[in-house]
Amino acid sequence: MINLPLLIVQQALNAEVEGGLFDFNATLPLMALQFLFLTLVLNILFYRPVSHILDERNEYIRNTLTTASAYLVQANELTQKYEQELAESRKNAQKIIKKSQQEAQQVVSINIKNAQLEAEKLVTEASLQLNIQKEQALKTLETQVDTLSEQIKLKLLGN
């Protein structure tokens, strides 16, 4: 049987001989140059266009927010203006309604006074007519009483 830990140690010794974990020959600077070259290529091909697109996007968002804020301020100003106009219109409408009610009340009171005067006039005319009829009735009764008293007097006195 082969001893496994012994085999691992033997392979590690062989690896050190062939080149260890860090081999300081020409591949290390070549790897560093390759890293720098790839960093430069990625910077040119990826980072600059992406950062340019992100900058444009940020500028677009900033401009849109500025425009939206300006529209919001304008909308708030218009809302306040229309609310003030609406309040003034309501006040004017209330004044007009109050004035109309007062005018209607005056018209009604004038009509009531005219109706009362007309009623008083009718009552007075009726009273005058009744007084005239009363006087006529009294005159008629007087004449009838006079004739009756003459007839009674003639019957009693004479015949």
From TrEMBL:
What stretches pass through the bilayer?
Answer: 24-47
Cellular compartments per GO CC: plasma membrane; proton-transporting ATP synthase complex
Give the location in the cell: Cell membrane; Membrane
Q: Which keywords label this protein? A: ATP synthesis, Cell membrane, CF(0), Coiled coil, Hydrogen ion transport, Ion transport, Membrane, Plastid, Transmembrane, Transmembrane helix, Transport
User: Tell me, what does this protein do in biology?
Assistant: F(1)F(0) ATP synthase produces ATP from ADP in the presence of a proton or sodium gradient. F-type ATPases consist of two structural domains, F(1) containing the extramembraneous catalytic core and F(0) containing the membrane proton channel, linked together by a central stalk and a peripheral stalk. During catalysis, ATP synthesis in the catalytic domain of F(1) is coupled via a rotary mechanism of the central stalk subunits to proton translocation.
Q: Which PANTHER family match?
A: ATP SYNTHASE SUBUNIT B', CHLOROPLASTIC
Spell out the InterPro entries in the cross-references. Answer: ATP_synth_b (IPR034679), ATP_synth_b/b'su_bac/chlpt (IPR002146), ATP_synthase_B_chain (IPR050059)
Top-level lineage group = Eukaryota
Organism equals: Gastroclonium compressum (Red alga)
Assembly, in brief, is:
F-type ATPases have 2 components, F(1) - the catalytic core - and F(0) - the membrane proton channel. F(1) has five subunits: alpha(3), beta(3), gamma(1), delta(1), epsilon(1). F(0) has four main subunits: a(1), b(1), b'(1) and c(10-14). The alpha and beta chains form an alternating ring which encloses part of the gamma chain. F(1) is attached to F(0) by a central stalk formed by the gamma and epsilon chains, while a peripheral stalk is formed by the delta, b and b' chains.
Q: Where in the sequence is the signal peptide annotated?
A: none
Protein family membership = Belongs to the ATPase B chain family.
Which segments does the entry list as coiled coil?
Answer: 72-103
Stated membrane topology is: Single-pass membrane protein
Q: Which CDD domains did the record assign?
A: ATP-synt_Fo_b (cd06503)
Query: A single Pfam family, by name?
Result: ATP-synt_B
Q: What is its main location?
A: membrane
- The name of this protein is ATP synthase subunit b
- State one molecular function term (GO): proton-transporting ATP synthase activity, rotational mechanism
